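Team,

Forwarding the record for the chain on the shared tracking sheet. I've put the sequence and predicted structure together so nobody has to dig through attachments.
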Amino acid sequence: MRELSAWAPMGRAARVIALSLAIVLLVPVSAGAQYFGRNKVRYEQFDFQILQTPHFDIYYYPAEQEAVSYAAHLAERWYARLSRALDHEFRERQPIVLYASHTHFTQTTIVSSFIGEGVSGLTEHQKGRVVMPFAAGLGETSHVLGHELVHAFQRDILRTHGRSIEALPLWFLEGMAEYLAAGHIDPHTAMWLRDAVADARLPTLEQLDEPRWFPYRYGQALWAYLADRFGEDVVVRALKSRAKGGAIGRIAAVTQIDSKTLSKDWHQTLVDTMRSPPPAAGEIPGATPIVSRRGGGGRLNVAPAISPDGEELVFLSERDRYSIDVYLADASTGAVKRRLVRTAADPHFDSLQFIASAGAWDPAGTRFALATVQGGKPVITIIEMSSGRVQREILVEDVDQVFSPSWSPDGQSLVFSGLKGGLSDLYVVDLDTRSVRALMSDPFADLQPSWSPDGRTIAFATDRFTSSLESLTFGEYRLGAFDLASGAMRELPGIPDAKHIDPHWSADGRSLYFVADPDECSNVYRLDVPTGEFFQITHVESGVSGITAISPALSMAAGARRIAFSVYRHGAFQLHVSDAGSGTAVASRMSPVDGASSDQPRATAESGTPGFGVFAEGGVTVKPYKARLSLHDIGQPYLSAGGGSLGTFVRAGVQLSFGDMLREHSLHTALQVGKRSSDFAVQTAYLNRRSRWNWVVFGEQVPSGIGISRTSRESGGANADQRVIATDLVFQQIHRQVGGIAIYPFSRARRVEFTGTVHAITFRRDATTSIYTKSGRLIEETREGGTAGRPVRLIETGAALVYDAALVGPTSPILGSRYRVDLAPTVGDLTFATVIADYRRYWMPARPFTLAFRVKHVGRYGPGAGDARLLPLAF
């Protein structure tokens, strides 16, 4: 007999069938989780309740009790406004999930991805849940809530019209949300537009999809232009349009103007309106930056803090392109002397809070205080400037988040703005005792404190003098003064119709330098405290600003009369340092408020009717949250069919996901059926993320098989007809298992995993032998089948320690290190243990080249380790 074609000898085929067993069982137990990867840690366990208003189910926990009542009124007011503007009513009750701070928000289980510091809220598309933290002030919280509720309306409107929100670009959706939330082009967006006009750098409608054009700002500007030219209903008409051509097609259809003409007209309007007046005598026009994208910095160079002698500057930047880090530079040249904090491959810091906070030098210029987040908790990090090393770390447990610390003149205490339960107040921490004292406790926003040189007064930015809690109206931030001896607060003189943020004292305590925008362009101003007179210090055409409209942007070297400030220019944030100067007098100003204390806000006018859309107090109910699973997602169903020498098959399958509203519990099932019982497959897993422990229980039945065909010719003699013998072999196994995985993350980088699984595997062999004549006529066919070996029953356990602080680039890790130590004992019909030790290190000697180093051991030990049914370990 001569074999014409054969897949493999029988002995090898028998070993090949063990492939599924090796893949499912004998790969280390960590395959059920992640081999590497950073952890999304839930440091807190939130006891959620539901506050029900006429249109919303608001999920919150007891720490937010006071703040959530304001949020509920704000939500209903936004609903009244948006339902009218968009001509739509929700078909179902809208869920809103609120967190007391951004540090709590990053722990949400509703989305599995990591949430960056720049994300102030989100509306997920599947269930339309609005998920967001309270901001530093109720006014900012209201703005973000309005923005996210626009997305909820967009989703509901599009679903009503059979469309998906995911099909529209960000500039269309986010720009619309920002326009409806702001109602106009706000000064911060105007800053971006002035800069773009000055650089002759404006996008066409077709270019808005490109990543270089920030969709929030340019999208908002486009919708403001369209509403001004074509009427406010252009927004809802475009949203409900059924025109083809995507977002641009919708806009062209409702305006009856082609996109090229619209782009040209829009650009001309921006050029005509976004102009800045020339500087007056005595103003600093904003000299050449010392830190910029072209001068050794990154696109984000923010939170400047100049030393008391004016010689050195600390700032935050992504100049290495991989993370926001803290740098020390020469305040005259911008030359970087040292990187003080590196976060790219260092898991020590969860956040440096580069958007909402800035650090501060102590009066002696020897220490630097930085508000950070570590292990989900606010920590004040104090750096010794001579060595650049961390000297102390003060855990502030009384609040949820800490912002912008300022030193007392004796260097023994720090005052900071703290967010607690969704509301911000000022606090003082004693560095010796670490005791924390609240200076006030109310719903008004109190930010960016600055301790006076005589130690008696703290200046700060606040909305308490321009906002009304009764009507829930919020005015501009003004400057306040808190007297430490009496506890009295008073409003300092202010420039009409302008924000006042980021105050800093002069060395003699007579002047306060701060950032204001009386002409809707932010610049540095000086208040002469005794006389109440104002002077404009800088004239920056785009604006003196941090990343947001209320981000810290200014620092004062009191002993040297120098200021450092951040400027948005050429599409990036850059840092400037200059002499403080006297400035140019501002003619229009408010008189001081008679030096009187103010404990109550002055009511302010509101656009529209005060209290519009706010429900009566009796219109709410509160109930505990009970997790109930409901259908979350249906995976793409499939149907497959085929055939060949091994027979025909027809199979169909689908995946189903269930979850509760907070996604703390989820159930995932995949099901496959076919025309044979051996085609039936099912996999089910339940995941619990209620606490810091994440655990999974799972079960499955998975059939798998492999086929072998071979053909031979047989002759009965010289004159006899030749016969062709075809043999088809099918090896099949059915793998059943139940088990569980428990994971405990110590930090974002380090975790421990425990697993336990029970396996039962059966094997079957079916053979079909067909005999044909030379012409192809079937003469004879026989079938036989039976078990292909003894069933295998195994009990597998395992434990692993995993560390991952590697920074991953577009395709692979580029910086940092990671390791895994894994032990997986197995008992039952086979007894052995699998051991893995895997360490990897990545260096970048010169961008963009990375050197990788790896040490690894994989081994299987025990009496069953050499069993022929096991595949060799290979990774």
